[in-house]
Amino acid sequence: MEKTRKYYQDLIVAERDYKVMLKNFLLAFCFGGIVAIIGQLFYDLYYHILHVSEQDSFTFMTLTMVFLAGSLTALGIYDNLGQIAKCGLAIPITGFANAAVCSAMEYHKEGIILGIGANALKLAGSVIVLGTTSALVVASIRYIFEVVL
To answer: Which domain holds residue 84?
Structure first.
């Protein structure tokens, strides 16, 4: 059977349900906002209540959010929330923690060194490499425009 453009368009139209897409968008938006609010609450706790410096409050807030996401992933709660929240939990830094913990948990039977240690950043490693590379490219372009031109 020849797969023409019309064939693929018919497949796409059959899978398109704008009500479901809108529901998923709103869920992701709301859950992403909830994650941001929780992060802000931790920042306020550290900065205003515990009187930690502003820069350290950001660091502690980030560490707390990563720790909570990793703990929820290890307990199996984060994945269940991810099914409901869609990319609302995958986009923030909590998604990075989830990816790291999931890949480490997958290989835990192989031991601490060869299993968890070797595979903890397996999925997140590409994010680190691509993020660093893109930061270098953007910084180089900015340097060229500011200094050279």
So the answer is: 5-106
